[in-house]
Amino acid sequence: MAVSKGLRLSERWFQRGLWLIAIIFAGFLIGLGRLVVGDLPKVEKPISAESFMDPVPLHDARLRLGNDEDALKQNDDALNTAELNTQHAAEATQTEQGSFDNWVATRSATEQSSQNPELVRRTKRLDEVKAAERSLQQKQDALESAHLQLQQARDADQAAEQRVEAAGQVGYEREVRRNELHVFLLRLAITLPLLLLAGLLFVKARKSSQWPFVWGFIFFALFTFFVELVPYLPSYGGYVRYIVGIVLTLAVGNYAIRALRRYLEKQKAEELKPEQERRKDLSYDMAQLRLSKRACPGCERPLDLADPTSNVCVHCGLLVFDTCQQCGTRQTVFTHFCRMCGLAKAARPQASQTTL
Ligand SMILES: [Zn+2]
Ligand SMILES: [Zn+2]
To answer: Which residue has the higher pLDDT, 132 or 235?
Structure first.
C-alpha cells in the first residue's frame, strides 16, 4: 500500500493534496460525463403519438367534432336568448293577468252584464299575451331538444375520435418502449465499460504512482453508473442497476477476502523466516508507524513498549529493543541513529527506503 505511509510531515500533506486531486479529477470527469449522458436522448428524434394513428378517420372525426362544437355553441347562445325571452313573456302574462283580475273584481261589484265590450277586449288582450308566451316557450323547448341531439352527436364523434386514438396508442407505446430500450442500452454501453475499466484499474493500478488519477477515475465510473444513470432508467432499469451492484459487491468482497487470506499467508510465511532477515525486510517508515501504534513492526500484534525487560516480540520473536554499542542506552532497533549519543547504526542492515 503506497497511500499514506510516510511519517514525514510534508509527505503526509502531499498525500492529502493528492487525494484532493483525485476528488477534483473525479468531479470534472463527472461533469463531463453528465453532459455526455444528458445529450444522449437527442440521438433519438422525438416521436409523436399522432404519427401512429390512421390519419383519414382521425381527420374526419376531428372535423365532425369541430362542427359539433360550433353547432352546440350556436345552440347555447340561441337557448340563452330564448330563455330570457320566455322569462320576459311570462312576466308580461303575469302582469296582464293581475290587471285583468283586478278589473274583473272591481267590475263585478257594480256591473253584472257579461257581454261587455270592455270585457271582450281585455280577455282578448290576455289571450294574446298568453299565446305569445306559449310560442316562445315552444321555441325554447325545440332548442332544448336540439341541444340534447347535438350533445349526443358530439359524444358519438368524440367516441369515434377516441377509438382512432386508442388504435394508434398501441403502436405508439411499443415505439416508446423500443426507443427507451435503445437509449438505455446506449447509456449502458458507455457506462458499463467505464465501470469495468475502473475495476481493472482498481486491481492493477491503484497503488501506482499515478494513483490519484486512478482513484479519481474509479469514483467517476461508480458515480456515473450508480447515480448519473438513474434518471434515465426505464422501468426495468432498476434490475440492471441492482444486479450490477450485487455483482460488483460480490467481486469486491471476494477480492477483499482473497486479499486478507493472501496477507495472512504472507505474514505467516514472513514469520517463518530467520529473525534477522525479517528485520531487514521491514521498511523504516512502516516500522516507525507500527511502533507508534504500540504494535510489533513484524506481526502487527500488540507490544508493551513501556516494559524495560521485554526486548523481543513474544508473538513472533522479532528483536525490537537493544542497547547502543557506544553509550548503552536502550532503544528500538528500527532507528538509524542512537537517540542518546547519535551513533550512526551503519553496522545494522539498512531498512529499505520509503516507497511512494
Ligand atoms: Zn511480533
Ligand atoms: Zn548511543
So the answer is: 132
pLDDT, mean of residues 195-220: 92
- The last residue of one of the domains, among 247, 272, 297, is 272
For residues 212 and 264, membership in a common domain is answered with: no
Give the CA distances from residue 16 to residues 198, 206, 210, 266, in Å, rounded to whole numbers and listed in that order: 22, 16, 14, 29
Give the whole-angstrom CA distance, residue 168 versus residue 25: 49
**pLDDT at residue 195 is higher than 80:** yes
CA of 335 to the centre of ligand 1 (A): 17
Ligand 2 (ion): which residues have CB within 5 A?
324, 326-327, 338, 340-341, 343
Distance 188 CA to ligand 1 centre (A): 50
Å from CA of 317 to ligand 1 middle: 6
Pairing relation of β-strands 330-332 and 321-323? antiparallel
Q: What is the CA(190)–ligand 1 centre distance, in A?
A: 49
Domain count, the chain: 3
Which pLDDT value is given to residue 44?
65
pLDDT of res. 43: 63
DSSP for residue 356: -
Calculate how far, in angstroms, residue 247's C-alpha sits from the geometric centre of ligand 2: 58
Cα radius of gyration rounded to whole Å, the chain: 49
Domain of residue 302 covers 275-356
Q: Is the pLDDT of residue 152 over 90?
A: yes
pLDDT digits (tens, 9 = 90+) for 5-40: 667 889 889 999 999 999 999 999 999 988 887 776
Q: For residue range 36-69, what is the model confidence (pLDDT) as tens digits?
A: 877 766 666 777 888 888 888 889 999 999 999 9
Residues 6+ apart with CB under 8 A from 65: 154, 157, 158, 161
Q: How far apart are CA 264 and CA 262, in angstroms?
A: 6
> Is 203 in the same domain as 265?
no
